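Dear support,

I submitted the protein below through the web form. The confirmation email said the job was done, but the results page showed an empty box. After a refresh the structure appeared. I'm attaching both so you can tell me whether what I see now is the final result or a partial one.
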Amino acid sequence: MGEEQKLPEFGGIRKSLWPIYKFELKKFLPMSFMMIFILFVYTLCRDLKDTLLQTCIPNAGTEIVSVAKLFGVIPFSVIFTIIFMKLSNKYNTAKMFYGTITFFVSFFVLFGWVLYPATKYIHGSPETTAAWQAALPKAFNSLVPLVTNWTFTLAYIFAELWGTAVISLLFWQFANDITKTTEAPRFYSLFGMIGNFGLIGSGKLVEYFSKKTAATNVQDTFSEEAIKAFGSSLKWQMSFVAISGAMIILIYYWMQKNVLTDPKLYTPGGGIKKKAKPKMGVGESFMYIIKNPYVMLIAALVFTYGMSIHLDEVLWKSQIKLYYPIKNDYNSFMGGVSLRTGIATVILMLIGTNILSRCKWRTSALVTPVFTLVTSLIFFGLLLYKEKLGSDAINVEWLRRIAIFKGSWLWTAVWIGMYQVSLSKGIKYSLFDSTKNMAYMPLDPEEKLKSQAAVEVIGGRLGKGGGAAMVWLLTSIIFPKGTHVTDPLVMKIVMCMAIVVMTLWIIAVLGINPKVEAKLAEKRQEEKEVKEAAKA
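What the results page shows now:
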């Protein structure tokens, strides 16, 4: 401890951009590269999962994504967490790490090289899907294609679970175990920022292989040529997933041998010590939240963010599917989205740090919902105007100029939506996550632990599943059988719901602000008094 106190202070720019001592690079750089490879795989598979459900399943609307999240991702997340916790009681941390990475990567490679080429033999035919849909109640209309195209559904679920299993459970658990309390404030934000270069690399890779293997002059996404072209691109991408998985394991193994044996870098039990989170069930969590208005507002932040993004994206992805119906084209476009999201996140993380240090909590916390609402209104306006004038014909000259280069409302809606999503996610990573965690500061330690556990169970899960449930109800229960999210009336309802949810998000920020600001002012005053006492 005494050695750490003698370390020299960093200068202004160095303190903001690179507060890492030379001897710490042996630990910091491998962890940063591990994060790059983890996010690289996450982004490749995230782009793939959207392509599979949007362009590889005949006659499926964009609402099938909501159904996959509601009936696939959420139940599998619970099942995976239960299995993971049981196995972690039996095996040590290193075996759990190796086993989890190997399991996921093996599935992705198996899917790319074996399952996808064999889908015409192991999937139900379009005729079988149509027969099941006709025989079953309309509530199952969007669920049946997920069952008959089961390998695509599994790939979607596994891609979603990679984020939970590898980023949340494996990486951050390992980081908390080996990072000292004096290192965490300097290391953690840089892990996130550097890791986003994985998004940039994977986005560029997806674009390259999607274009390299694309079939020429193909208009039917279900033609043999289109399926073969996408399969070729998929094999390349999943090969890079295998390489990245191997690199993650090698880095982890190297750190076990060279970092965890270095007393200067690691002391067993000397990492960040956290009290175990209280294990609260869904019912207990819900009751804890409704009894504490302040915690309810924090849960509202998480819930409204998740629902807003889902409702926004389901409309945006419906337009992407219309403009890029061919598999490789769709996959290439999603790679471009990931590329731009990575660049935006790196830049906005640098900007966000300055906003947090210079502005009040309310200002910093309002940036994400206000930006999302304003850009959503622009996007929704484009969709409504496109509906009136037609997606490929703009007759008013000054309006034609808005539809940059293409003169198409559909093209403009797709690209405006892309920049909105990329920037919204960048702002989320740089400001929303930070301000949300700062909102816990007014609570005492015990309340903080309980509220975090409750918000994670209720706010997190309902935020992701709430929007999906809304879309499923509209397209599978309320409206006639076969209605898709691109139906004009359904789109208008989803838009209205998204605007209401984003408005509630802003209200939650304003409602929680006075207590957060009061506590931050109290802490600043305490620090000032301590400094003055030290001078005296």
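Response: this is the final, complete result; the empty box was a page-load delay. Confidence is low (pLDDT under 50) at residues 270-275, 391-396.
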